[in-house]
Design goal:
By secondary structure, the chain is mostly helical. The protein is built from five helices and four strands, in the order βααβααβαβ.
């Protein structure tokens, strides 16, 4: 599995927010923050900047998600997400072959 290195920032944001809300203990958040990125191949997001920016503008969607789509497109792999709004926008944009929603049947089914 791979992800743009902006994943570390997003993961940190979510985890620290959960700690502040007392939904997660700091020790658990810290363990997750260390473990998750170490199990992925992280790609330098600078190489994805312009494409993510273009996708964000053309799809009227947040740039953070567009980094993940840009990586899928450039690496010719599938972005698997639970974000139904993103999936719909990507499919509407004509780039549907690069995305699949969690729970959707695989194309081979």
């Amino acid at each position: 599995m791979m992800a743009p290195d902006v994943l570390v920032v997003e993961l940190g944001h979510v985890l620290t927010k959960k700690v502040r809300r007392r939904e997660l203990k700091a020790e658990v958040a810290s363990a997750v923050f260390i473990r998750i990125p170490s199990q992925l191949t992280l790609t330098n997001s600078r190489a994805l900047d312009m494409r993510a920016f273009e996708l964000s503008i053309s799809m009227h969607h947040g740039i953070h998600d567009c980094y993940f789509l840009a990586l899928a497109e450039i690496s010719e792999t599938i972005l698997l997400t639970a974000d139904a709004v993103l999936v719909a926008k990507v499919r509407q944009s004509g780039l549907g072959r690069w995305i699949r929603q969690l729970g959707d049947p695989s194309p081979d089914d």
